[in-house]
Fold Adenosine 5'-monophosphoramidase HINT3.
Amino acid sequence: MAEVEAQPAQVDISKTSNVPAEGYDKTCIFCKVVNKEVATELLHCDEEISCFRDIRPGAPHHYLVVPTRHVGNCKSLGKEHVSFKALSENIEPVCTNALYSICRFGFHWPPFCSVAHLHLHVLAPASQMGFISRLVYRMNSYWFITADQLIGFLNSKGETN
């Protein structure tokens, strides 16, 4: 297990944890994961995003991609989150091109969020998702939205402000 923690994909973000007032919520489990306060393997971690496995996988490969600094849910995003919007625009096409249609990507729409820290679900292969997972992570539902739908929400929010 110690070998896995020494992988170069992991980045020490101790600087982030030294600034708890900005971008850190001490009650948020995802903030604790990103700041290595919880024993969870970080598959990727940099100043913008972090990625780790979901503890209750809905598919054989179920990952969560989160902003490294605390951001609430989809509805809490605003103009100041343009960098995450740009990131969201780039994550899905890259993964979709690499894996074609075997992945499912999306965000739970409030109040259907189990953790109040923005997180993108990446599930693969979608064909191996069980019945309940197909409902919970159902595309075109009012509780699970795609990155494109989130971007549309952010664009419309920017137009109305």
The helical segments are 2-5, 14-17, 29-34, 82-99, 131-136, 147-160. The first helix runs from residue 2 to 5. Confidence is low (pLDDT under 50) at residues 1-21.
